[in-house]
Amino acid sequence: MQALVLDGINQSVQLREVPTPQPAPGQVQVQLHAAALNHRDVWIQKGQYAGLKFPIILGSDGAGTVTMLGEGVDASLQDQQVLINPGSHWGNQPAAQGRDFQILGLPQDGTFAEYICVDASQVRAKPAHLSFEQAATLPLGGLTAYRATFTRAQLQAGERILISGVGGGVALLALQMAVAVGADVWVTSGSEEKIAKAVALGAKGGISYKAEKWPATLTKQAGGGFDVIVDSAAGPGFNDLIDAAVPGGRIVFYGATHGDIPELAARKVFWKQLSLLGSTMGTAQDFAAMVSFVEHYRIMPAIDETFALAEGEAALRRMDEGLQFGKIVLKIKYLGSGA
């Protein structure tokens, strides 16, 4: 089969002929029709991720058709159109992942390929209203957004929610999910264009996080502070989120793209009785609930740009630029000589 292979730090991915994986007992082989990028792929390419190994096939998100079953797998999965849960071996505690938790694309080869083998428990039927390209945008981003917004922050209809750094896949899916349940959604971004696009998706409004004293301006516009804040940046600007939260509010963050928080405004946190919640990926139950949520509300994920598999390096550079609004997708056509 053909796959995009990364041979080392700061190297370009190369389209290469590699052995087609065969399913072990309990696994399914999936012919991938689409895969989506995450910042994780760029960080691995730059060597900014733990547990690096090379060569590796990147990619955590994928959707396709089950083409082969390993021993002991339910025959009904044969030929089913599926999307893949990128997380495996979560462990027995729903509250947090265990030591054996893994994400597709490192250390296990990922979805930037024509075929992949995963445990049968990791596939779910593709929502019928979505194309393969749309479905491929959901796994990592959708799971992360769902767990952060609902499992961890417990967002309710009618609450006011702020989503920071809108434009990325997780933030946009959190926006669409929050709008679907009837929350009032506001956003921040460094781009007025992205704020306008977020409003077109149902946000009430937004503000640039570069603006001076933006929490006071935004809370005035929104008619008050925010019950829930969903963030991926952390860093020095985190204290602005504390200012924007209502007393008793919940701030959930699933990333730290701006680094650690240098000086947390601890007095404001305890005086306002805020809950600070960390969140990473999600359980198999979260994944199933996310897929059901997308089906029920007919969520249509936003796609920024679609590339052919052979254009994978260009897609990674698009991700690295940080200009995207929505997910970057690889459309995978069958190129190789078969299983």
TrEMBL record:
Entries under InterPro entries matching the protein: ADH-like_C, ADH-like_N, ER, GroES-like_sf, NAD(P)-bd_dom_sf, Zinc_ADH-like
Coiled coil: none
Ranges where the Enoyl reductase (ER) domain occurs: 8-330
Example of a GO MF term: oxidoreductase activity
Pfam families: ADH_N, ADH_zinc_N
Protein name, UniProt field: Zinc-binding dehydrogenase
